């Protein structure tokens, strides 16, 4: 959401919550004190909502600047196979670990990535026998990778533009992790539901 959209959203919010107050003001039976109270409550709620929106966008922007090193720290070892592994073995490993992709390493060097999409399009759709097909024959070779200093926002833009779901994180030739578009999205929205509830609670208590 850009600045113009934010201003428009706040304007709409103010208009919506101000409607009851304007209606009350037009009622001659309402006392001046009642009008002041209503306006005070409406303004407080409006500012609370506007502050919540601004705080949310600021936090989201900060989280997009977080480096991948932060979100992969503390992870267990990566799931990987060698180039000679059979597709059947790879699929079993992916199913057991409940993951959508495997890294293919030759020693410590990243040479490819094998995904669910590869299994469907390059193996099943091509009529190959997964029991005798090597992963090196059907993997995506030399996949795009990024250093751990890459920001979450930059990684999101990359996977969106290139239309793939998995991104290896490599530091000086050593594979550190494999992050998915789901990992990136989860990092961005984590704790945001709590923030929204806090703002909603503040408005309700008003």
The string of secondary-structure elements, in order, is HHHEHEEHHEHEEHH
Poorly predicted parts: 193-206
Overall pLDDT: 78
What's the Cα radius of gyration?
26 Å
Strand order of the largest sheet: 1-2-3-4
**Largest β-sheet summary:** 4 strands, mixed
The structure class reads: alpha+beta
Question: What share of the residues does DSSP label as strand, in percent?
Answer: 5-15%
**Quaternary structure annotation:** single chain
What percent of the residues sit in helical stretches (DSSP H or I)?
A: 55-70%
Give the count of helical stretches: 9
Task: Fill in the keyword field for this structure.
9 helices; 206 residues; alpha+beta; disordered C terminus; two-stranded antiparallel sheet; 4-stranded mixed beta sheet
Description:
The protein contains nine helices and six strands. It has 206 residues and is α+β, with helices and mostly antiparallel strands. It has a four-stranded mixed β-sheet with strand order 1-2-3-4. A two-stranded antiparallel sheet has the order 5-6. Strand 5 and strand 6 (174-180) form a beta hairpin. The longest helix is centred in the N-terminal third of the chain and has 33 residues, at 32-64. The protein starts with a helix and ends with a helix. Residues 193-206 have low confidence and may be disordered.
